[in-house]
UniProtKB/TrEMBL annotation:
InterPro entries: AraC-bd (IPR003313), Homeodomain-like_sf (IPR009057), HTH-like (IPR037923), HTH_AraC (IPR018060), RmlC-like_jellyroll (IPR014710). It comes from Chryseobacterium contaminans. One of its GO terms (molecular function) is DNA-binding transcription factor activity. Residues 174-274 form the HTH araC/xylS-type domain. This is AraC family transcriptional regulator. Gene3D superfamilies: Homeodomain-like (1.10.10.60), Jelly Rolls (2.60.120.10). SMART domains: HTH_ARAC. Keywords: DNA-binding, Transcription, Transcription regulation. The keyword Transcription regulation applies. Transmembrane segments: none annotated. The keyword Transcription regulation applies.
Length: 282
């Protein structure tokens, strides 16, 4: 299977086709695909979902995917490298890369937040204009548009993660999860008693409230989210284990390994070696 790379951090393309332009290759980069026209279905990692005008689809590196086109389709492809996600300073967004990588269980359109529909349409229009009418500082403008698109994609994935277990998820649970994600590196701020006090709730109530909204306990959510971040660091960054220990507030490498082995039944070094080789041989 041919593996396609990009020779730049970000690349924007437009394709209009009756045949799948995304078949038979494996990609080393992310793609955000916006459907400008046409209809059909996407198969991503054996999950099938229909697409139509306005669909926004995220493909992560090494996803297995193809299109089945029913009607001539126009696609805007926004390609960006793993290095771009890793190196860009995302301000207050905690590990946007982990969020994007964790979207591989999703299929179909990720644009579920209705106010974002207008924003995405405006960004796509601007990107298309830049492709057709390149002008001074066009590269800088394109990067701003692509960054906005990545953040919107991450925001929608985040809301889908919060709401997948409950159809009536309210604003406060989103704020609690944002708090947890924003303070994931500080164990003192992740105590249930501290979180409860931050939101003016009792420990008993916040525990049952969180589980009812998200389908898991708040402690379980914190542990799983921290593990996902550590997995991401091991697989997609150059960080040393002692740097990960410091970042997440563990006392030493032994403490982190004990925490990690509870889920993976292997050490951090074994995980990095085993999963890293698996990624290279997919």
């Amino acid at each position: 299977m041919k593996r396609e790379n990009i020779d730049q951090l970000v690349k924007v393309e437009y394709h209009e086709t009756e045949n799948c332009p995304l078949k038979g290759n494996q990609y080393s980069f992310f793609q955000i695909i916006y459907v400008i026209s046409g209809k059909g279905s996407f198969t991503i990692n054996n999950n099938i979902a229909s697409y139509s005008k306005g669909s926004l689809i995220l493909l992560t590196p090494d996803d297995k995917h193809h299109l089945d086109i029913e009607e001539k389709t126009g696609l805007l492809l926004v390609k960006f490298s793993e290095r771009y996600v890793k190196d860009y300073k995302w301000n207050n967004i905690n590990s946007i890369g982990c969020l994007l990588y964790g979207a591989s269980y999703l299929s179909g359109c990720i644009l579920q937040n209705k106010p974002d529909v207008v924003l995405v349409d405006s960004i796509v229009t601007s990107l298309l204009h830049g492709l057709n009418h390149p002008d001074l500082y066009q590269e800088e403008l394109t990067l701003h548009y692509v960054n906005a698109l990545i953040v919107i994609a991450a925001r929608n994935i985040s809301k889908m993660r919060v709401g997948y277990a409950s159809s009536n998820t309210d604003k406060r649970i989103v704020e609690i999860i944002n708090y947890i994600q924003g303070n994931i590196h500080d164990p003192a701020l992740l105590k249930v008693s501290v979180i409860a006090r931050e939101f003016g709730l009792s420990e008993t109530y916040i525990g049952s409230y969180f589980k009812n909204q998200c389908g898991e306990t708040i402690t379980h959510y914190i542990l799983n989210y921290k593990l996902r971040l550590i997995e991401h660091r091991l697989l997609f960054s150059d960080m040393r284990i002692n740097e990960i220990v410091t970042e997440f507030g563990f006392s030493d490498e032994s403490h982190l390994n004990k925490f990690f082995k509870k889920k993976h039944k292997m050490s951090l070094t074994e995980f990095k070696k085993t999963k890293g080789l698996a990624k290279l041989t997919v």
